[in-house]
Amino acid sequence: VMQDKIICLPHRITSGSVNICEVNRSLLLHMPSNASDVLREMRGVKTNLDLQQYSFINQMCYEKALHWYAKYFPYLVLIHTLIFMVCSNFWFKFPGSSSKIEHFISMLGKCFDSPWTTRALSEVSGENPEEKDQKKSGTSRSNTALSPEESSLEKTQSLRSIPEKIVVDKPSASVLDKKEGEQAKALFEKVKKFRLHVEEGDILYLMYVRQTVFKVLKFLVIIAYNSFLVNKVQNKVCCEVKEIRDVTGYTVFECNHTMAHLFSKLSYCYLCLVAVYGLTSLYTSYWLFYRSLKEYSFEYVRQETGINDIPDVKNDFAFMLHMIDQYDPLYSKRFAVFLSEVSENKLKQLNLNHEWTPEKLRQRLQTNPNNRLELQLFMLPGLPDTVFELTELQSLKLELINNVTIPASISQLEDLQELSLYQCALKLHTSATSFLKENLKVLCVKFDDNRELPNWMYILRNLEELYLSGSLSPDSSKNIVLESLRELNHLQRLYLHNDGTKLVMLNNLKKMTSLIELELVRCDLERIPHAVFSLTHLQQLDLKENNLRSIEEIVSFQHLRKLICLKLWHNGIMYIPEHIKKLSSLERLYFSHNKIEILPSHLFLCNKLRYLDLSNNDIRFIPPEIGVLQSLQYFSVTCNKLENLPDELFFCKKLKTLKLGKNSLSILSPKISYLTLLTHLELKGNHFEFLPQEIGGCCALKRSGLLVEETVFETLPSDVRDQMKAE
């Protein structure tokens, strides 16, 4: 470009206003054969021009006579090339698109090389991973090119027929160490976040479409004007510049464009190269608009691998996968493994097994209140398979663990009898269902929604205890729990904690005749359910935290000959009906946290009572008939309004626990000494100024069992205090 110039010589022929250049051209075209002698005579003519004048003439003719296309052709090529380069590479530099591409390429390479990909594809294809690992791939991978222009000449196979190529040089794909497992887990999280972010927009697709359309239009413009102007590049140029006649003495010059021949050849070559580039851009345009590139289906991958939960993707995520398919469809296939939840769950399971070894699990074994060896697992991403190697396990407690699947290997836990599920979504293998159906004795389920209740619990024919804590739907059309539970013929203990939601369809309780314990807590009951009176084997009934106001139905309990424990605590009961006397079999009675003001004397005709709790009421007086309860061992009237105690209370000589705290008592009868078996006495929160020294007659009562203010305790004789302090 820097050497581009023309060399001019003056022409002697002058002819007024006649255009000399046109005359010369005409002479050259119509010159007779003998005209060569005339031209020969013109050679060697002296011009008397110096070097500076020649340079001046060359410069003027270069500017005035040379066609602009011949002058600026190299610059046009340079400018067009720069525009093409910027247009093709802009999306690799623009922050909104380049970051997506870089992250995608980075993840793609890691997913392709991950040992987990090889393992997952080997498992679903049914091949031995160790054998597949020995097959070396002859394909060498270079940097991934996204642009179809750069790979349009390559023949890529259909995704349907692409065989799996293993490139991971591991000794065994079936063995995935902890570090590789953690790396694969991190990849799953990155892919999930990347998909969520990229699927929201289509900036990459729009940018690529626009730059491709622009390149096609520019290609057409370049071809059009270059084809028309390429013949303007000539070697000989006639130059007529009248303005310099006074300086040089000439107005017409014959010039030679020194670079014309080279520029002419280069222009044809340039047109050919631009044509090839343009045809590639046209092919890319056809590829872009032939089908929608904003949707990508993994149907072929699902069919080939058997991983059926790989989701289809859209927008920029789909577009980038279409682009990578132009390079090698195998990348998309291996990348799809990290879009599968099934694959992710398998990896989580593998990592769990690495983390929770049988030795670590055995260290967490404890004995629960039912005297069973229990393993409790809390907020894990899944259930480790190593749990089923603890053959001594008797109770399994799972809390806040989602997507738990119990495999057939649970049958190895031959001693398992108790299962607790606290807000866990649990699925069972068919063999596991059969095992639990025969072996499970106790099931505890805590749930937030009816849909979390396991359907298989209704077929546990040997189940003896069932604990349900949650919120059963008040809609009778949806609440099928109680109706289905009546099929559990061996169920002896049923505990329903309903979180304050009204419990309906209670009539189904009638058919659960084998029940010996029933607990209906926070079920919004306003009356005692009549269905309860049909449970002839019932021994214990708990109606805690309901809305009971009246309990006149209590007379029907007389038909329950085996009822020994009745809990009506934490309600709004105003009074105790006289019919209570007919419950002659009662041994434990709970009336705490109600609104009872008067105790009927008939209450104490339940002469088998051993435990009586009347705390947190408004009771002001205890009838002397309490002395009839000769079997009474526990009596509590804390948080009432008592001002005195009947002496008959101290005739209950089997009392071991007596709670009188937070009342208005001021005197404690010396007859307290009758209670020789007393081990716990609560007096704190009253108006006592002193204690009777006869309290020393309570031989079993020690200082730790006496709850009273220290100042009041100090009123006792020193020998009594020493006796009570002695262990």
TrEMBL record:
- Write the record's keywords in alphabetical order, separated by commas: Cell membrane, Disulfide bond, Ion channel, Ion transport, Leucine-rich repeat, Membrane, Repeat, Transmembrane, Transmembrane helix, Transport
Per the record, where are the segments of Polar residues compositional bias? 137-158
Q: Which InterPro entries match?
A: Leu-rich_rpt, Leu-rich_rpt_typical-subtyp, LRR_dom_sf, LRR_domain-containing, LRRC8_Pannexin-like
| Location in or out of the cell | Cell membrane
Q: Which SUPFAM superfamilies match?
A: L domain-like (SSF52058)
Enumerate the catalysed reactions. iodide(out) = iodide(in); taurine(out) = taurine(in); chloride(in) = chloride(out)
Where does this chain mainly localize? membrane
- Residue ranges crossing the lipid bilayer per the database entry: 72-92, 268-289
Source organism superkingdom? Eukaryota
Q: Does the keyword Disulfide bond apply?
A: yes
Xref: Gene3D superfamilies: Ribonuclease Inhibitor (3.80.10.10)
- Work out whether the entry's keyword set contains Repeat: yes
According to the record, the residues making up region (Disordered) are: 122-158
Specify the LRRC8 pannexin-like TM region domain's residue ranges: 1-284
The way it spans or sits in the membrane comes to: Multi-pass membrane protein
- What family is this? Belongs to the LRRC8 family.
Please state what the protein is called. Answer: Volume-regulated anion channel subunit lrrc8c
Q: Which organism is it from?
A: Goodea atripinnis
Q: Which gene encodes it?
A: LRRC8C
